[in-house]
Amino acid sequence: QEVTALLLSNGADINTQNNQGLTPVLMAIFMQNDELESLLRAAGASIPTDEMDLETVEDVVSYIEKLGIKPKRIPQMKTSIRDKNINAEIFFEIQDATAMLVALGVSNFHISWGDVFYRLMKAHQS
Fold first, then answer.
1. What is the pTM for the complete model shown?
2. Domain co-membership, 6 together with 65
3. In this record, what's one Pfam family (predicted)?
4. Neighbouring residues of 24: CB distance < 8 A, sequence distance ≥ 6
């Protein structure tokens, strides 16, 4: 956090992306570092959901496509959403990352991606 504060005080771009499209705040979320995430958000960092209108589960799947998370699994997610008749209200009531991945039919994702995705969705709601 001290390094982050130093970089910010010297004008570092808070929303710069690495080669994989990840920003510092996304990495903080991925590492489940709440203090760093808060520091970055307070400094003006945005997350992709800040600019997105995620009203339906289909919007969520489109968001996953945009992030490039497991693109080969997108058809599986769409099928799971239809088969389970998951609507946005049901989806956004899910209380943990594992349950969210199960609902999307991709419980074999590495759980850390589930955590990132879950926290992004919760950040979008707040």
1. 0.52
2. no
3. Ank_4
4. 4, 14, 15, 16, 40, 45
Residues 42 and 53 reside in one and the same domain: no
Question: CA 40 to CA 35: how far, in whole Å?
Answer: 9
Query: What is the DSSP secondary-structure string of 11-49?
Result: T--TT---TTS--HHHHHHHTT-HHHHHHHHHTT---GG
Residue 53 pLDDT:
65
- Give the three-class secondary structure for 72: helix
Number of domains in the chain: 2
Q: Provide the percentage of residues in the chain whose pLDDT is more than 90.
A: 0
**Alpha-carbon span 6 to 8, nearest angstrom:** 5
Count of helix runs (H) and strand runs (E) in the chain: 8, 0
Note whether 35 and 61 are same-domain residues: no
Considering the domain architecture, whether residues 60 and 99 belong to the same structural domain is answered as yes
Q: Do 31 and 81 sit in the same domain of this protein? A: no
One domain for residues 18 and 67: no
pLDDT tier at 73 (50, 70, 90 boundaries)?
confident
Domain span holding position 24? 2-46
